[in-house]
Structures are given as C-alpha cells and as structure tokens.
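Consider this one:
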Amino acid sequence: MRSLAFQVFGDPIPQGSKRAFVVKQRAVVVDDNKATLRSWRSAVTDAARAELNGEAPDLGPIRVTLMFFLRQPKRPKAVVPIVKPDVDKLARAVLDGMTDAGVFRDDSQVTTLTARKRYTTEAPCVRVFVDGDA
C-alpha cells in the first residue's frame, strides 16, 4: 500500500454510544450523536477519497496514526486534553469514515493504531497517516 496522509478540519466528533430499541418486533440500533457524527464521518470519507485518487482498497495489514487537535478551553485542566471526548471513540469515527472511503476493506485490517489528543489554539482538526504494517 502506498502511504496516505490527509487532514480534516472541524471539531472531531466521537463515534458515540449506541442506543437500541424495538420497532415492530425488529431491533434498531442508532448512534446517540447521529446528526453531528454523520457530517464528521462524511468529511473524513471525502478527504480520504480525495487522497486515494481512485485506488482499490488495501487488503493487507495497515498502520494508522491519528493526531486529534481539539479546541483549547479557556481554563484547561491539564496541558493535554484529559477530558471527553475519549480518544478511542474519536478514532472509531475516523476509521469508519476511512472504511467508507475505501482506504481498506475493513478496519479490522488495522494492526497498529496510534491516536493522540492535543489542544490547539488554531483550527481544530485530525491529521491522518496511513501505511502498510509489514
């Protein structure tokens, strides 16, 4: 796989918890933050597709590095964000968007994942780096 690197501007949105309920004897599962999550994942998908430039999905092991830059509050509790959103839920949303874009067939192919949260006084975003993990 060739290496990919792209950036998505906007407030990173976590893949929220799921809610399940029954409608006409059928189970329905939805994300708690469906509206905001949809637009964030769509932005990730669009950026990944643009970087892929029509290449087929990779079928081998993948290494992904995610750098999340979150808005710095006026009074942060620490130098780095030790508050919500959880880094694992942020990563899930980006990985699912990359799956939708066709970067890989399934995010189960990700064998190495590094994800970091940092504060920024500039535009919030995620920086994504992808390559093979041999």
Notes: The domain at 4-132 is CATH 3.30.1330.70 (60s Ribosomal Protein L30; Chain: A;). The chain has one domain: 4-132.
